[in-house]
Amino acid sequence: MDMTGKTIMITGASRGIGAAAARVFAEAGGNVALLARSQDAIAELAGELGKQAIAIPCDVTRYNEMTSAVETTRRA
Fold it and tell me: Which residues lie across from 31 on neighbouring strands?
């Protein structure tokens, strides 16, 4: 799978399936936006994945936080 030039927004990226998916997409060349309430965990994962990852602390149940996360991802 080649994800070069694609951007993937992953909710629940701080652990489990979300973190695993982020690693797979990043390894395939994709840019990943890591969303989770756990700021430290996604910051650590973004550091592991490198420049193609951004960490965005976000509670997906809050509309304003999701709107902001989408806009931050688009700008990045």
Answer: 7
Give CA–CA dist 10/69, Å, rounded. 11
Report helix, strand or coil for 49.
helix
Give the relative orientation of helices 39-49 and 16-27 as an angle to the nearest 10 degrees.
Answer: 20
Positive or negative torsion for Cα 56, 51, 47, 17: positive
Question: Mean pLDDT for each 10-residue chunk of the chain (76 residues)?
Answer: 94 96 97 96 97 96 96 94
- Which one-letter DSSP state was computed for residue 30? -
Distance, in Å, from the CA atom of 24 to the CA atom of 7, rounded to the nearest integer, reads: 13
pTM of this structure: 0.92
- Evaluate whether 38 touches 13 at the Cβ level (below 8 Å): no
